[in-house]
Amino acid sequence: MANQSKNTRFKAKPKMNEIRRAKGINGKELAALAGVTEPTISRFDSQSRYDIDVLVSVSKALGVTIEELFEINENKEEDGQ
């Protein structure tokens, strides 16, 4: 259980802060729009696990899909390619 990221097929890089800045929304405003706390918004891009309620609320507040909140890349294994 300690090696949660071991053998993961995909890596997701959060883009929430990039999206909110492009829309001219600060963290406090987004927290109010999404109905979540400011600390939830401030730590969004540094997390590796997300609550579905937060994902849905933030994506709706920003007018994007949940998938758009992340840059998703497939991990390439050196020995498997």
What can you tell me about this protein's structure?
A two-stranded antiparallel ribbon has the order 1-2. Mean pLDDT is 87; it is low at 1-5. By secondary structure, the chain is of the alpha+beta class. It is 38% helix and 12% strand.
- Beta content: 5-15%
Write down the overall mean pLDDT: 87
Helix share bin: 25-40%
* Termini Cα gap: 27 Å
Low-confidence stretches: 1-5
For the biggest sheet, the summary is: 2 strands, antiparallel
Overall SS class: alpha+beta
Main sheet: strand order: 1-2
The number of strands is 2
Spatial shape: elongated
Number of DSSP helical runs: 4
The quaternary structure here is single chain
- What is the radius of gyration computed over CA atoms, rounded to a whole number of angstroms? 14 Å
Give helix and strand order, one letter per element, not per position: EHHHHE
What are its keywords?
81 residues, alpha+beta, 4 helices, 12% strand, elongated
Set down the secondary structure blueprint.
Blueprint: E1 10-14, H1 16-22, H2 27-34, H3 38-42, H4 52-62, E2 70-74
Helix pairs in contact: 2-4
